[in-house]
């Protein structure tokens, strides 16, 4: 299943790469027809689509490679770098767009053949929207930041092209040529903002920042499948590298259990987490022996070594499970 998923990701990003080359050519042809600064800005931004899609294809290929001696956690982090690279290129392109727009505002140039040029841009909008939407949907399913980033970039390109068509319509209705340069300037600012978002998310991933949505998903999986013998889970760490999910945690179990039973329980614990994720999942579980304080929230009714009566269960949540301590402090129970 993982192999098929990787092949699907590679086919999708290859489709994006080929489409970006063709659509960029169409946009430059539209600029040749019209001499519109806004259309030129859109065409220049599309060059970024080509470069970014090419790099994203390589990153997805590399992230699919199995872990090796030099990369024991796999190659999934390349997708963060790919998204950051794409974001940086978008920011650079936005600077050129803004500078050119300011020049044209100060020194306006004639515009022609707007209707014909707009027809080409409308076609690129339809293609970019279809491919971008597909990349977003499949990227979220596969937890691929590279696919999501490229899909979001294409969708952003479609939105900006729609604004471009709107500005061209205004020029045709009003005859005010300066609208073209103002639209280009706004487009450049919009590009810079989206590039900044991509770079920020990339840096967060490379720095192993907590993904709150992913952490909540893992916590919800544990809560919904909570077993009586799982006395406590703490020191939970969750990281996503490409399609690969890595989970570390401590699991508190009865101290008197034999090693075989501990092993079987941890194995079942791991399988529950793996079944909730479509990609490769690597889990490291450290087994902790229970303490007498755990009796207050331990749900094992027939425990042969119980020293205190059960008082209440503890709600598992992201804030408490990430702490490197057993959860009896979370119970707010007076322990003598």
Automatic annotation (TrEMBL):
Single GO term (MF): zinc efflux antiporter activity
InterPro entries the UniProt entry points to: Cation_efflux, Cation_efflux_CTD, Cation_efflux_CTD_sf, Cation_efflux_TM, Cation_efflux_TMD_sf, CDF_Transporter
Domain Cation efflux protein transmembrane, first and last residues per copy: 13-207
Subcellular location: Membrane
Gene Ontology cellular-component terms listed: plasma membrane
Membrane topology: Multi-pass membrane protein
Segments passing through the bilayer: 12-34, 46-64, 76-99, 119-137, 158-179, 185-207
Predominant location category: membrane
GO biological process, one term: intracellular zinc ion homeostasis
Superkingdom, natural source: Bacteria
Span of domain Cation efflux protein cytoplasmic: 227-290
Family, as annotated: Belongs to the cation diffusion facilitator (CDF) transporter (TC 2.A.4) family.
Protein name according to UniProt: Cation diffusion facilitator family transporter
